[in-house]
Design a protein that fits this description.
heterodimer, A: alpha+beta, 3-stranded antiparallel β-sheet, 23% strand, B: mainly alpha, Cytochrome Bc1 Complex, Chain C, Helix Hairpins, globular, binds protoporphyrin IX containing FE, binds FE2/S2 (inorganic) cluster
Chain lengths: 185, 409
């Protein structure tokens, strides 16, 4: 017995050392992987839960929204802007030279029906709600929306035209259930 | 100075089993302290007292507070109107946060002036910065709890900072929120963390003190103490001096609490959170204004976020950016002036952060931001090399007691 113990301890300095090093490393690596895997449920528990994911569509009645008017609805805790655009606004949105935009997108790609623009009302800079839904609100230099927090201007298609925001206002997934009813989400 | 023995028999028995009594005696009583410390050395113990006040008031507030989006605001109003002394507890906690930051900022600038971050105190300096970062996270999450308009929009804007990072940004923000916007899951986790982090801070404070006591306090001359004639026991000399400072601190703190409890808060935070309406001017609490100004001075979203975090992280390498061998600014004629310029720059940044990002504020903010980094990254390394420092005294006692340095041989 004593001699075995002696030879192992001694081996650490000689050629047997690599075996002990290997065991240390392998144990350490297993421990690290195990701890990492065990931590995942803790981390993932902080992601959106099933019931948050479930309440994710809203139906909106468009009948009361006349041309030139707008409606704000809440979807997934965020404001969604629905605007019934005038012919002038539609034309302005379509006539833009897409190549000049910071986040190039045609108006067609951003709308289901030209008369209606539906966007998430969250500034893509740092998340404020832009102004422009109420008739008395400032709408910025491009007639769409204006974010007062750090001065981002959006056009009538919700595209970023001026200011610090990097992206266009997001377009949520939505479908027209009928001419006067839309389902968001 | 020899250690006063423990006389009480019970204490002796107890200390033999758990040596806390001798530990306290060693670290708070005999602990040899440079005899020339001025009042700027008061702010460390004041910071510790602030932390105790925040935890004491926080724990009792937590017994009355409800972390739910539909009840949080009302529960804080209930604390203000119905709970016995609730108004006092909340005003102590709210203004206590401001006093805590004031004290800690003075404590940090003290370190900058007297070169306390230099060898052998680099790790002590790091631990202090870790405490500062933890305090910021704690205060930010605490500010969200009353669920007023500023609470909600501060939470939205600050969490959105992380969306600046490419690819991982959006998933990180969703993870922080636990949903698709700042909502009930966010409020809940912020409350859990707001309760937890102060105790983490206590842990780091203990490490900070262990690091401090290893080499002892720096002092206004910035030279090491060279023998018993340079130091005095902590108790009663500095316990009394700290106690006097504490009295002055309480005068200021209580003046705030009783005469201007809402001076430092935005009135709009007394309007319940509304996810559909952003207030026209979003401003953070005063202690975050300089960083907010740095964020907004840079027109690119990602670079702005990097500059903001960088402005704090850069302080971790300060001990190496400062190339001067002399610690105290008293003996550094050029650095001494630049210190005040830097302090003024930080105050200007705060003032810019308070104002809307329009007109000349943008330009001033950009210049002040540039100078902040210039001071730390360029001026400090160069000045440390080229400056002709004034001669250092032989020892702490030498300038006062002529010939004291002869004794020590
Ligand atoms: C580092 C120490 C701490 C700091 C800097 C801090 C900071 C803050 C701030 C700025 C607020 C918002 C005050 C307001 O506008 O009403 C707040 C609220 C709150 N804090 Fe703390 N806090 C600390 C420690 C604690 C601890 C240890 C607890 C509980 C154990 C706690 C519990 C609360 C509660 C329940 C609220 C909501 C009630 C209120 O708004 O007054 N805090 N905290
Ligand atoms: S959040 Fe809209 S411009 Fe900054």
């Amino acid at each position: 017995m004593a001699s075995t113990v002696h030879s192992t301890a001694h081996g650490a300095h000689g050629d047997g050392g690599t075996r002990r090093d290997f065991l240390y490393l392998a144990t350490g690596a297993m421990g690290a992987i195990g701890a990492g895997l065990a931590a995942w449920p803790l981390v993932d528990s902080m992601n959106p839960s099933a019931e948050v994911l479930a309440v994710s569509s809203t139906e909106v009645d468009l009948a009361p929204v006349a041309v030139g008017m707008a409606l704000t609805v809440k979807w997934r805790g965020k404001p969604v802007f629905v605007r019934h655009r005038t012919d002038k606004e539609i034309k302005e949105a379509e006539d833009v030279n897409v190549a000049e935009l910071r986040d190039p997108q045609t108006d067609k790609a951003r709308t289901e029906k030209p008369g209606w623009i539906v966007v998430v009302g969250i500034c893509t800079h740092l998340g404020c709600v832009p102004l422009g839904q109420k008739p008395t609100d400032p709408r910025g230099d491009y007639g769409g929306w204006f974010c007062p927090c750090h001065g981002s201007h959006y056009d009538t298609s919700g595209r970023i035209r001026k200011g610090p925001a990097p992206k266009n206002l997001a377009v949520p997934a939505y479908t027209f259930l009928s001419d006067s009813k839309v389902k968001i989400g | 100075m020899s250690a006063p023995a423990i006389n009480n028999r019970f204490l002796k028995w107890f200390d033999d089993r758990l040596p806390v009594v001798s530990f306290m005696q060693h670290e708070l009583h005999e602990y040899p302290t440079p005899k020339n410390l001025n009042y700027w050395w008061n702010f460390g113990s004041l910071a510790g007292i602030c932390l105790v006040i925040m935890i004491a008031t926080g724990v009792v507030l937590a017994m009355q507070y409800t972390p739910h989006v539909s009840l949080a605001f009302l529960s804080v109003e209930r604390i203000m109107r119905d709970v016995n002394y609730g108004w006092l507890l909340r005003y102590l906690h709210m203004n206590g946060a401001s006093m805590f930051f004031l004290v800690v900022y003075i404590h940090v600038f003290r370190g900058l002036y007297y070169g306390s971050y230099k060898s052998p105190r680099e790790v002590l300096w790091w631990l202090g910065l870790v405490i500062l970062l933890l305090m910021m996270a704690t205060a930010f999450m605490g500010y969200v709890l009353p669920w007023g308009q500023m609470s909600f929009w501060a939470a939205t804007v600050i969490t959105n900072l992380f969306s600046a990072f490419p690819l991982v940004g959006e998933p990180i923000v969703t993870w922080l929120w636990g949903g698709f916007s700042v909502d009930n899951p966010t409020l809940n986790r912020f409350y859990a963390l707001h309760y937890l982090l102060p105790f983490v801070i206590v842990g780091v404070v203990v490490l900070h003190l262990i690091a401090l006591h290893k080499h002892g306090s720096n002092n206004p001359l910035g030279i090491p103490h060279k023998g018993p004639q340079d130091s005095i026991p902590f108790h009663p000399y500095y316990t009394v001096k700290d106690l006097f400072g504490l009295g002055v601190f309480f005068i200021v703190y209580m003046a705030l609490v009783f005469f201007a409890p809402n001076m430092l808060v935005e009135p709009i935070n007394y309007v319940p959170a509304d996810p559909l309406v952003t207030p026209p001017h979003i401003v953070p609490e005063w202690y975050f204004l300089p960083y907010y100004a740095i964020l907004r001075s840079i027109p690119d979203k990602l670079l702005g976020v990097i500059a903001m975090f960088g402005s704090l992280l850069i302080l971790f390498v300060l001990p190496w950016l400062d190339t001067s061998k002399v610690r105290s600014a008293r003996f550094r004629p050029i650095y001494k002036k630049l210190f005040w310029v830097f302090l003024a720059d930080c105050i200007i940044l705060g003032w810019v952060g308070y104002n809307p990002p329009e007109g000349h504020f943008i330009v001033i903010g950009q210049i002040a931001t540039a100078y902040y980094f210039l001071h730390l990254l360029v001026i400090m390394p160069i000045v440390g090399k080229v400056e002709r420092t004034r001669p250092l005294p032989d020892s702490i006692s030498a300038p006062v007691l002529k010939g004291a340095h002869k004794e020590k041989a």
